[in-house]
Design brief:
606 residues, alpha/beta, Rossmann fold, 8-stranded mixed β-sheet, 6-stranded mixed β-sheet, globular
Length: 606
């Protein structure tokens, strides 16, 4: 191993045993990480980037993989150099968490659902650092403050399911940093986060890295994040390293076609300036693309008026309602036929709850939702079943929304079976056609969800939502977990389907660059309210509300020369949306800045 190197991967080869024989996950990969350096490993899902990190942690064996070649050298501060590929699991347990920390991609699966956040944070500290309970609890509180979780004292007593996705991810980051490891492996750590929190967490990780000298191996598919974080970049494709170099060089002078395609697929904020209508992205190496703008019609298909959704907070021995979470507070908007309205905001701002309230997956407290000439909120469950044929939803986490025990073919066919729209061979043809539509090979029809990558699973979710030819699709963070090139293809696919089938979308996202690309109208949400709404061009080119401006400022730019420091990102802590039972919020009042472009005049708390 080179001097002054914390970890060095040499000629790594990893194989997986499947029912169809052995499959190579990583063929022959080498790279090194130095102290205080961030090496970003970039590639699409399935390229082998996560396999490399799981091999270093020796967790790959638990996922059915086997390190069949190469060396994984790690420099232990006290114990000298070890080859992790040959280390026994007893020593690995000491190294894991204590000397190598890991931030996993899906925070819900990385946290234990039956223990409180506080218990999970203190467990590693007490095991590795031999702290007393009081010391461990004080350190846990300090860690939650470091990752900027609101009301940290309360969070320590909560369970993972009580936190939003972004908050869970921050807990996972706090856990990984708890023992101040020499090497931190971050596997897509900001995928599920909003731009403001992502910007802060990237700046936070950067600061922690500089202060502690920790080496960071950062695995991501987001080129803007790479530009913000990396010192060096390793580009992976189908289990091999195709390019490596300093971050500026990779961005300004990419050599490999795959790297060029990755950079071309990054939606950049500001690309749509001066245009009114969304249009598909130009992809590298794709011939004959039609990049026509999508006009849609100015005829409403969905009208939401004064929607209010609150959740009870129970406490005391009798589990009485002691307070309420004001998740959605007096929200109104319209979605037109064949057009897209995007709702953007941070996790916990209520945007997903809006989508779920429209679908009646959570019951709103009050409001009026007019869809295709009927008030959705007044329908019985049986009538609602009929409406759901035209009103479909794509969820954020495709793994949780797919049944692990059913073949994909069955899952895509299920809505048609439920509604009796297709039978027998006709149904099979329709399923095959849907697989073609979302660009998945028909050979995947017999597979199960765990045999696909995240991006492929999300395409299955889209195919299933399209099965019944709906009029409106609520897409809740539908592309947030996808690689840039896959995300660009899926977004283009959604826009082509919109142009062809006249689909309307309520697009819920925290990615401003994606929202700019796909939207006709945009609503910005903060703390349960829409603080600014209007045509996409008006909102993006002339943001009026201070929160909208803060969001725009936080978007990472895919240019390593335009990095943001923590000083640039002085966000206010998000106030709590929990209020006592009798609390009545003021109604939302708006001022029109230009035609259709309105900003909230009621105090939004920002």
């Amino acid at each position: 191993m080179l001097d002054n190197t914390i970890a060095s991967v040499e000629n790594l080869r990893v194989e997986f045993e499947t029912k169809n024989g052995r499959v190579v996950g990583v063929e022959d990969v080498s790279f090194a990480v130095k102290p205080g350096e961030t090496v970003c490993i970039v590639g699409e899902s399935g390229s082998g980037k996560s396999v490399s990190s799981l091999s270093l942690m020796r967790l790959i064996e638990y996922g059915g993989g086997e390190i069949s070649g190469g060396r994984l050298l790690f420099d232990r501060k006290e114990g000298g150099e070890v080859d992790l590929a040959k280390t026994d699991q007893g020593l690995m347990r000491t190294i894991r968490g204590n000397e190598i920390g890991m931030i996993f991609q899906e925070p819900m699966t990385a946290l234990n659902p039956v223990f409180t956040v506080g218990r999970q944070l203190t467990e590693g500290l007490r095991l590795h650092k031999k702290l007393s309970r009081e010391q461990a609890e004080a350190r846990a509180l300090e860690l939650l403050q470091q990752v900027r979780i609101p009301e940290p004292e309360r969070r320590l007593k909560q369970y993972p399911h009580e936190l939003s996705g972004g908050m869970r991810q921050r807990v996972v980051i706090a856990m990984a940093m708890a023992c101040e490891p020499r090497l931190l492996i971050a596997d897509e750590p900001t995928t599920a986060l909003d731009v403001t929190i992502q910007a802060e967490i990237l700046a936070l990780m950067d600061r922690l890295k500089r202060e502690t000298g920790t080496a960071v191996m950062f695995i991501t598919h987001d080129m803007a994040v790479v530009a913000q974080m990396a010192d060096r970049v390793v580009v992976m494709f189908r289990g091999n390293k195709v390019e490596e170099g300093p971050v500026e060089e990779i961005f300004e002078n990419p050599k490999h076609d795959y790297t060029k395609a990755l950079l071309a697929a990054v939606p950049k904020l500001g690309e749509m300036t001066g245009t009114d209508l969304p249009r598909p992205m130009k992809l590298f190496g794709v011939e004959g693309q039609t990049l026509d703008p999508i006009p849609g019609e100015e005829t409403p298909i969905l009208e939401v008026r004064n929607l209010v959704t609150r959740f009870p907070v129970q406490g005391g021995l009798l589990r009485r309602t002691v307070a309420r979470v004001h998740a959605v507070e007096d929200v109104s908007f319209t979605v037109n036929k064949g057009q897209t309205l995007s709702l953007v905001g941070e996790s916990g701002c209520g945007k997903s709850t809006v989508g779920r309230s429209l679908m009646r997956l959570v019951e709103p407290e009050s409001g009026h939702v007019e869809f295709d000439c009927c008030n959705v909120l007044s329908l019985s469950q049986k009538e609602m079943h009929k409406v759901r044929r035209d009103l479909q939803m794509i969820f954020q986490d495709p793994f949780a929304s797919l049944n692990p025990q059913m073949q994909l073919m069955e899952q895509v066919a299920e809505p048609m079976r439920n509604y009796g729209t297709h039978k027998g061979s006709e149904m099979q043809d329709r399923v095959a056609h849907l697989f073609d539509r979302v660009e998945l090979p028909r050979s995947f029809m017999k597979r199960f969800p765990h045999e696909l990558s995240g991006g492929q699973r999300q395409r299955i979710a889209i195919a299933r939502a399209l099965a019944l030819n709906p009029k409106l699709i609520v897409a809740d963070e539908a592309v947030s977990a996808l690689d840039v090139s896959v995300q660009a293809q899926v977004l283009n696919l959604m826009m082509e389907l919109q142009a062809e089938l006249g689909l309307s979308y309520l697009f819920i996202s925290h990615d401003m660059a994606v929202v700019e690309r796909v939207s006709h109208y945009v609503g910005v949400m903060y703390l349960g309210r829409i603080v600014e709404i209007g045509p996409r061009r008006a909102v993006f080119e002339d943001p009026q509300h201070p929160y909208t401006r803060a969001l725009m400022k936080a978007v990472p730019v895919a240019d390593p020369r335009q990095r943001k420091s923590e000083r640039d990102l002085n966000f206010k802590p998000i106030p709590s949306p929990i209020h006592p039972v009798g609390y009545e919020a003021a109604p939302s009042e708006y001022r029109e800045v230009s035609p259709g472009h309105k900003i909230l005049t009621t105090d939004s708390g920002y």
